[in-house]
Amino acid sequence: MQTELSNRLGIEHAVFGFTPFPAVAAAISRAGGFGVLGAVRYTAPDDLKRDLDWIEAHVDGMPYGLDVVMPARKVEGVTEADVEAMIPEGHRQFVVDTLAKYGVPELAEGEVSGWRITGWMEQVARNQLDVAFDYPIRLLANALGSPPADVVTRAHEHDVLVAALAGSARHAVKHAEAGLDIVVAQGYEAGGHTGEIASMVLTPDVVDAVDPLPVLAAGGIGSGQQVAAALALGAQGVWLGSVWLTVTEAELPSPKLIEKLLAADSGATVRSRALTGKPARQLRTEWTDAWDDPAGPGTLPMPLQGLLVADAVSRIQKYEVDPLLGTPVGQIVGRMNSERSVQAVFDDLTRGFEQAVDRINRIAGRSGQ
Amino acid sequence: MQTELSNRLGIEHAVFGFTPFPAVAAAISRAGGFGVLGAVRYTAPDDLKRDLDWIEAHVDGMPYGLDVVMPARKVEGVTEADVEAMIPEGHRQFVVDTLAKYGVPELAEGEVSGWRITGWMEQVARNQLDVAFDYPIRLLANALGSPPADVVTRAHEHDVLVAALAGSARHAVKHAEAGLDIVVAQGYEAGGHTGEIASMVLTPDVVDAVDPLPVLAAGGIGSGQQVAAALALGAQGVWLGSVWLTVTEAELPSPKLIEKLLAADSGATVRSRALTGKPARQLRTEWTDAWDDPAGPGTLPMPLQGLLVADAVSRIQKYEVDPLLGTPVGQIVGRMNSERSVQAVFDDLTRGFEQAVDRINRIAGRSGQ
């Protein structure tokens, strides 16, 4: 599974793995892929420094990258408190009532919510970058549009490739115009924030729109057959996120959540604004149903919704309140049916890819080859 | 593009084309694919007989099939008038008001709506089959679940393969249990009735669920690269519908609608209940927006919605009322950018397929082959 892009990065397989867990990122790079650490949860720069140190010590010299959530437009002088003040009381009460209905306990006194994500605030993301550029990262990906121009310049000065996610050809063209090096075409079936165009259509749309920039296909990919399909569509690699949630190296805090992921079929997700205020694919739960119910107050725009539900999501996860317990994940969750090591995932991917290539050659009448 | 299934049917390319137009169906089969005539609009058996005669005379002896819309469960003694009587007055008034708002003229006195589709009524579909089994059709496809058991038996007695559409692995298993021969996995991105699981995930789901039954991939396929992707995912062929709407052999009555289809990008569709009462992908218009608007009365269940809007849709199409003018079509509409002949579509499909196979072999390190 080698493309121009994988050769440029010096990796064996054109498989990029996005993960919030340093151990998973390092294992992906060691297995011949390209691990990308999600930074959005690192509020304190020292925590990010600690985990990048860990990766450096465990990646066996293989390349890796960082994923941040950085808005292209700067919002001057807005603090978290300002945003909190914009949340209507009725919405706060809906959270209180819904949690009470399911008997969800409070966090302990002084306990900080792990879901109080502030990495989307520009200054927090910039602090992350100040740390990251001290490490030999090879890729900086942004989940929220093109990064600001000075960040792109700074990355290029550090010989770091810049990528961004796009849900349409139009968004992808904006990334190309902003001087980015790679576009991640994020299909409808992907976990997390997605648009409505499915990978089968989106991948070639984006490939054609930004040619000759390399495109990574994201959304619906968890087997070698799906890798082959994405590469047949013109991608120079694949970007996998969901599949790493249930690897043995992952550190999901809730065993019950892992069970839910392993049991879920491909129809078990929903694209909902419940988590962040923008449509994001996640396990469908009674929590997402409550937010998507026309009888409820509905969701608030980003970033208000994320702040509104941060403590609630932490409480649901900590106390493993089954009917409400969810996580961002793509439709590929239907193929995540056993806990495997990262290396075993790669073994399955490469085996499935070779089988798909054999199959397609037979169909093309090149079976002797 | 040859698979076990295409060899069994004696066709050159494992490309199945669904179309309401006899000229397109015949051209698909002549080009080496397998044309499937959509029968739902044939209320009068003689009309179907006339068009099957035409196909017989123009298909050069190549095989073809028929697509019907037949419910598995029989609803005894329900007439169209009974169904009409179930439509609330408020919904009728909403149709009147919306059409008036856009100044849509009435049909002429005595003019019959082309969209008054009754092919979904079991007796109408059975009358169609009485006609069709007098012709050497090789495939009978059903768009609405498994056909009734006696129809499957009758088809098999005529050496006709039976296929049905499925939007999930669960539905596909029901088809296998009903003794069907082929499952069409209809992804989220497809035109017409679809579920929520995208082709990248649905195709292998269904392939695994009904193995060893052959699966056709539908949804998001209009290029040879997409054919290669679908076959890499395990399909034994592809099922294309949208792409034939703008071929030169098609007989869409509205030039403005053809212009709209050629101009639309892949984000121009919506999955809406506006046309039939079940979610069906179609061009997004101010008509679909009106039905999907929470401030409106909302849609009625199938088959009420279809009867409610039949005349309206005919009037919108006849008078080409631009903001309301739409049609069922998939996200692949973004690649339908010029009027081509059916043969030109096949030339593009085979060329793109070969390019994709070359590409995937290079990536797999089999470039010398």
Radius of gyration of chain A: 20 Å
Greatest interface: A-B, 53 and 53 residues
Cα shape of chain A:
globular
Low-confidence stretches of chain A: none
Largest sheet of chain A: 8 strands, parallel, barrel
Helix content range of the residues of chain A, please? Answer: 40-55%
What is the CATH topology of the largest domain in chain A? TIM Barrel
- pLDDT averaged residue by residue of chain A: 94
CATH superfamily of the largest domain in chain A: Aldolase class I
**N-to-C series of helices and strands of chain A:** HEHEHEHHHEHEHEEHEHEHEEHHH
Count of discrete alpha- or pi-helical segments spanning 4 or more residues of chain A: 14
Termini separation of chain A comes to: 18 Å
The tally of beta strands of chain A, per DSSP, is 11
Main-sheet strand order of chain A equals: 1-2-3-4-5-6-8-9
CATH first level of the largest domain in chain A: Alpha Beta
* CATH structural architecture of the largest domain in chain A: Alpha-Beta Barrel
GO molecular function (chains A, B): dioxygenase activity
Pfam family, one (chains A, B): NMO
Protein name (chains A, B): NAD(P)H-dependent flavin oxidoreductase YrpB (Nitropropane dioxygenase family)
Keywords (chains A, B): Dioxygenase, Flavoprotein, FMN, Oxidoreductase
